[in-house]
Write a structure and sequence with these properties.
heterodimer, A: about 475 residues, alpha/beta, Rossmann fold, 12 strands, about 10% strand, B: about 240 residues, four-stranded parallel sheet, 13 helices, globular
C-alpha cells in the first residue's frame, strides 16, 4: 500500500517554503484580509449560540464513538447505500481510488467529468490520474476552478484560492476563458464563471463529488456548499462518483443536527450553508441513475491505532483553525506543502503518511492554542503536535545522523545539566563567560549556531552577572536584603 | 502562608529581577517564601520539542522537590501549563502509581503568580506604586491553558499611579513558541513584527506579561527596531513601591 497526500513527497520543508511566502507581500495581504473577514464573521455566529460549548462536546463525543466503532458503521453504511441502489467501492490508497474512478468513467465511455470541491480528490491527486487516462476533469467550485486554471495549488481547506485577490483572478479568467476585456468587478467575474460553468453542467454526463458526511443508518451522503455548483454536479449528470474518506461516516441522520450547526458557523461564519444536498442511492427518473461511492482509507485506519492520533480523524474540514492560526495567517497555505494546510494540516498530513513526509509541519506552530479554541469538534491540535514531535524525535534518535544532530546533542546535554543543580549552576557560569565573545554595546546581536536564528531578527540582553539563586544565597547569608 | 517558589530556570538565569520581585511582593503580603535550591527545570523545553523521554526525570525531580509544599508559586504561565497539561499524562505513561499519585496531589497546589495572588490568596491590591503607562500582553499559555482571565489586569488596575492601556489584538501570539523562535525564525519574526506594532500603537512605556519568554521575544524586536518601550514581568511592577 502506498499512501500519498497531494505533493507532499516533493515539497520543501516548512521553514524554507515559509521564507519564500513571507517575501510575497501581495500574498500576505490577501491572506490577512481573507482570514480576518472569515474570523470576524465566525466570531459573530458563534457568539450568538448559547450552547456552543455543549455542541462542540456533542460533536466530539459522536466522532469519538464513531471512530472507535468505525468498522461497524462503515459496513452499515455500505449495506444501506447498496440497498438504495448505490455501488460501494473500497480503496486502500490513492492509486486504488484513482484506478476505481478511471475504470468507472471508462465503463460509461466518459472523456470529461465535472467536479464538486473535494479535498480528498486533491489528496489522492485524482485530476492528475484522470488526465493521464485521457479524461478531462473540470472543477466547478469557483475557487477550485481558479486554482485549476491558474495551475496553482489550493491554499485553504474551505477557500482554496484565498491567496488570490480579484485582480489576479480576473487575469487568470482573461487568459483561460479568452475574455480579453473582462474587468475585475465581482459581478463581471461571477458572470464569466457562470457562463463558463453552465455550459459544462449541461454538457458533461459524469460528476465527481466528495462528501461532508456519510450517514450509516440510511446510506445517505451529504454535501454542503455555497455556490450551487455542488447541487448541479450531484443532480444533473447521468453518473455520479463520490469519493469519501472513511472517517466521514456518522451513525445517524440525527447526528447531523449537531454538525450542521457547527460546520457552517465555523467554516464561513454562516448560520446555514446556502446549499445542503442529501441523496440516498439512486431514485428512478430523478438525478444520476448510476451512483458509485469510493470509500478511501489512504492511511486513515492506521491512525485509529493510537488514541491521540485517532482524534485527528474527527476533523470536519471547516478550516476555522487555519483562519485562527497566527502562523498560517503570516505564510498562507502553500508553505505547508500539503493540500491540508494550517494547524490541522500540520497534524493530518504527517499522520496519514506515517511520518514519511511533512516532517517539518509539527514544528510549524508556537503551540499558542488558538486552533484548539476554535475547533468545533475539539481536536486538541497542540497536544497532537507535541505527540508527533515526540514520534519524530524518537525515530531520528534511532539513526546515527539523528543522534549526532546538534539539536539532539544539545537536548541530551541540557537534560543531564538539569538533573543536578550543581551542574546547572556551573552551566550558568559557563554561559555567562562564553557570551562575552558576542556582547556588543550591552546586547547580544549575533549569536552562533541555532541561536543565530534568534539574533537574525532580535536583540538579547546578556545573561546578568548574578542569577536569582545567587541573590537568594547571598540573602540567606545575610549579605543582602 | 508558606509558599515555595519555583522560579523557572530561564527566570533564574536570565531574569533574576522577576524572582526577586515575586519574593518581595509575597513577603510584603506577610507570607513566607522558600526557595528549594536544588530546583532546575520543569521539563517544558524538552517535552514541547518532542524529547519526551528526556523530560520525565526532570518532572520526577520537580514533583519530588515540591510534593510537600503548602503552595508552589511559579512566575511563568507556560511552565504551569506544562505541569497541568502534561504531568499527569506523563505519569500515567510511566505506569508508576506512586508517581501519578504525587502528581495528582501536587498539581492543585501549583499556582502561576497572578493566580496565586487573586484566586488563592484573594488579593487584588498588593500595595504597589508604579507611575507609568503600561500595556498587558496576555501570553497564550496564561490565556488559553491556564485561563487566568482578568486576574493580571485586576492586579494592574489596583496599582497606584499606573495607567493601563489595552493592547490591540492582544490575544494573538507574539511568535515566541520556544524552539519555534529559532527553528522557524522567519515566521516567528513576522509574528513579532505584528505584535510589536500593536505594543507601539498603545503609546505605553512598559509592556508586561506573565511570561518572560514572550517578553524576551517582544523586547528583542522592540530593541532591534530602536524602540524605547521597556518589558517587565508583572511581578516587577507589583513590587514597585512609592519613594518615602
Amino acid at each position: 500500500m502506498s499512501v500519498r497526500v497531494g505533493k507532499t513527497s516533493t515539497a520543501p520543508a516548512f521553514p524554507i517554503a515559509a521564507h519564500k511566502a513571507l517575501a510575497n507581500q501581495q500574498l500576505r495581504a490577501n491572506v490577512a484580509r481573507a482570514t480576518n473577514t472569515i474570523r470576524g464573521k465566525r466570531a459573530i455566529r458563534v457568539e450568538e449560540m448559547p450552547d456552543w460549548q455543549a455542541l462542540r462536546q456533542s460533536a466530539s463525543d459522536i466522532k469519538s464513538h464513531t471512530l472507535a466503532h468505525l468498522d461497524h458503521y462503515l459496513t452499515e453504511f455500505e449495506r444501506n447505500c447498496e440497498a438504495a441502489g448505490g455501488k460501494v467501492h473500497w480503496a486502500r490508497d490513492a492509486d486504488e481510488a484513482n484506478k476505481i474512478a478511471v475504470d468507472i468513467i471508462r465503463q460509461y465511455g466518459g472523456t470529461e467529468v465535472i467536479k464538486v470541491k473535494t479535498m480528498t480528490s486533491d489528496e489522492v491527486q485524482m485530476n492528475v490520474a484522470l488526465e493521464a487516462a485521457g479524461i478531462t476533469p473540470i472543477e466547478t467550485d469557483l475557487a477550485d476552478m481558479i486554482v485549476q486554471m491558474g495551475h496553482d495549488e489550493p491554499s485553504h481547506i474551505v477557500v482554496p484560492a484565498l491567496h488570490k485577490n480579484r485582480f489576479e483572478i480576473a487575469e487568470i479568467f482573461r487568459r483561460t476563458m479568452n475574455l480579453p476585456d473582462l474587468t475585475a468587478t465581482p459581478e463581471d467575474l461571477t458572470a464569466a464563471a457562470r457562463a463558463y460553468l453552465r455550459d459544462r453542467f449541461l454538457r458533461v454526463k459524469i460528476g465527481i463529488s466528495g462528501a461532508n458526511f456519510a450517514v450509516a443508518e440510511t446510506g445517505a451522503i451529504c454535501v454542503v456548499e455555497s455556490e450551487g455548483n455542488g447541487r448541479m454536479c450531484v443532480t444533473m449528470p447521468d453518473v455520479l462518483i463520490t469519493l469519501v474518506g472513511v472517517e466521514k461516516v456518522v451513525p445517524t441522520f440525527q447526528d447531523l443536527e449537531v454538525f450542521l450547526q457547527l460546520l457552517p458557523r465555523s467554516a464561513t461564519g454562516e448560520r446555514m450553508n446556502p446549499y445542503n444536498s442529501f441523496w440516498t442511492g439512486v431514485t428512478p427518473g430523478d438525478g444520476p441513475q448510476a451512483f458509485h461511492i469510493i470509500l478511501l482509507d489512504n492511511g486513515r485506519t492506521a491512525q485509529l491505532l493510537d488514541e491521540r492520533e485517532r482524534e485527528t480523524l474527527a476533523c470536519i474540514r471547516c478550516g476555522a483553525c487555519l483562519n485562527a492560526c497566527p502562523v498560517y495567517r503570516e505564510t498562507g497555505g502553500n508553505a505547508y506543502g500539503s493540500i491540508y494546510a494550517g494547524p490541522i494540516g500540520a497534524i493530518l498530513s504527517p499522520q496519514l503518511q506515517n511520518l514519511q513526509h511533512s516532517r517539518s509541519l509539527p514544528y510549524a506552530s508556537t503551540l499558542c492554542g488558538a486552533c484548539y479554541e476554535v475547533c468545533p469538534v475539539k481536536i486538541n491540535i497542540p497536544e497532537t503536535l507535541i505527540h508527533l514531535r515526540g514520534r519524530i524525535v524518537r525515530e531520528d534518535q534511532k539513526t546515527l545522523t539523528g543522534k549526532l544532530a546538534p539539536e539532539n546533542i544539545a537536548m541530551q546535554f541540557a537534560a543531564k545539566i538539569f538533573l543536578s543543580h550543581r551542574r546547572y549552576e556551573a552551566a550558568q557560569k559557563l554561559a555567562r563567560s562564553g557570551q562575552l565573545l558576542f556582547e556588543r554595546k550591552g546586547q547580544l546581536t549575533n549569536l552562533p549556531g541555532m541561536a543565530g536564528g534568534w539574533t537574525k531578527y532580535r536583540d538579547l540582553k546578556p545573561i546578568p552577572k548574578s542569577s536569582f539563586r545567587d541573590w537568594w544565597k547571598a540573602r540567606e547569608k545575610g549579605e543582602t536584603q | 502562608m508558606k509558599i515555595a517558589l519555583f522560579v523557572a530556570c530561564y527566570n533564574d538565569t536570565l531574569f533574576p529581577e522577576t524572582g526577586i520581585a515575586v519574593t518581595r511582593v509575597l513577603e510584603r503580603l506577610g507570607h513566607t517564601v522558600t526557595f528549594p535550591i536544588e530546583q532546575t527545570c520543569c521539563g517544558q523545553m524538552h517535552y514541547n520539542t518532542g524529547y519526551h523521554g528526556e523530560a520525565v526525570p526532570l518532572v520526577r525531580r520537580f514533583v519530588q522537590m515540591f510534593r510537600d509544599a503548602e503552595a508552589v508559586c511559579v512566575p511563568s504561565a507556560s511552565c504551569v501549563a506544562m505541569m497541568r497539561e502534561h504531568y499527569e499524562l506523563m505519569a500515567e505513561r510511566e505506569n508508576d502509581p506512586a508517581f501519578l499519585a504525587d502528581v495528582r496531589s501536587l498539581l492543585p497546589r501549583v499556582f502561576e503568580f497572578s493566580e496565586l495572588l487573586v484566586n488563592r490568596l484573594g488579593v487584588e491590591d498588593v500595595g504597589a506604586y508604579f507611575a507609568d503607562t503600561v500595556t498587558y500582553h496576555p501570553s497564550c499559555h496564561s490565556l488559553r491553558m491556564l485561563h487566568v482571565g482578568e486576574a493580571p489586569k485586576k492586579l494592574l488596575r489596583a496599582v497606584e499611579g499606573l495607567t493601563l492601556i489595552e493592547l490591540p489584538n492582544q490575544e494573538q501570539c507574539c511568535g515566541f513558541g520556544g524552539t519555534f523562535a529559532v527553528k522557524n525564525a522567519d515566521v516567528s519574526a513576522a509574528m513579532l513584527t505584528a505584535k510589536d506594532a500593536c505594543v507601539i500603537e498603545t503609546g505605553a512605556n512598559v509592556v508586561t506579561a506573565l511570561d518572560n519568554s514572550c517578553l524576551m521575544q517582544i523586547y528583542g524586536g522592540l530593541h532591534r527596531s530602536g524602540s524605547p518601550v521597556r518589558t517587565m514581568h508583572l511581578a516587577e511592577i507589583l513590587a514597585g513601591e512609592a519613594a518615602r
